[in-house]
């Protein structure tokens, strides 16, 4: 976020200000961009046809749920689960 790859008002609640290599920053950006697109595609494809769920494995510092929820892009019937190791 600080490097300017993308805007994320929620990341400060999850990540420290520890400096990472550009490759790691790009990896975070690629994952965030991909998760955003895939979840949006899934929501558009499924629509509001009933209950559905997203399971994000290795979520770490991913704030996709919070960003999309803040935009109102997630239907009320969608359950969003994030799973990762306890230390991330």
Question: What does this protein structure show overall?
Answer:
With 88 residues, this protein is of the alpha+beta class. The protein contains two helices and two strands. The chain has helices at residues 22-46, 64-71, and strands spanning 52-57, 78-83. Strands 1-2 form a two-stranded parallel sheet. It is elongated and about 45 Å long. The two termini are 17 Å apart. The relative contact order is 0.19.
Number of strands: 2
Mean pLDDT: 78
Distance between the termini: 17 Å
Oligomer: single chain
Strand content: 5-15%
Helicity, as a percent range = 25-40%
- Radius of gyration (CA) equals 14 Å
Uncertain segments: none
Write down the secondary-structure element order. Answer: HEHE
How many helices? The count is 2
Strand order of the largest sheet: 1-2
| Main beta sheet strand tally, sense and closure | 2 strands, parallel
Structural class: alpha+beta
Rough outline: elongated
Label this structure with key terms.
elongated; alpha+beta; 88 residues; single chain; 38% helix
């Amino acid at each position: 976020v600080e490097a300017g790859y993308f805007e994320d008002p929620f990341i400060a609640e999850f990540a420290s200000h520890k400096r990472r290599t550009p490759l790691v920053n790009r990896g975070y950006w690629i994952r965030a961009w991909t998760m955003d697109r895939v979840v949006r595609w899934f929501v558009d494809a499924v629509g509001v046809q009933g209950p559905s769920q997203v399971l994000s494995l290795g979520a770490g510092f991913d704030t996709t749920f919070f960003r999309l929820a803040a935009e109102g892009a997630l239907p009320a019937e969608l359950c969003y689960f994030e799973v990762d190791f306890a230390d991330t």
